[in-house]
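Give me the fold.
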Amino acid sequence: MGECLFCRIINREIQATIIYEDDRIVAFNDINPQGPTHVLVVPRRHIATLDELTPDDDPLAGELVRRAAAIAKQRGISAGGYRTVFNTNRDAGQTVFHIHLHLIGGRTMHWPPG
């Protein structure tokens, strides 16, 4: 997936502030933050949208969510609250077609989000 922005970040072809990585997941600060904390948690494997997940991906999806919770705790925002979001497809606001979980916190959130 040479054209995918997140694949290029994962492969270190594009610079990003990576705050966590292991053999399956990479997390980095969003370049257009919507809060004091705005981290993207992405799988290393390219998966364009949530629609492409299979039952075999259940552990990976759980890892993305658990890693976001761990980062929220490390950043000191877990007690006050934080938001996790997967945007899926264009009408939901997905602009990079590589699944990614947004972890946003450090400010009061409102509902509906927009």
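The first helix runs from residue 5 to 10.
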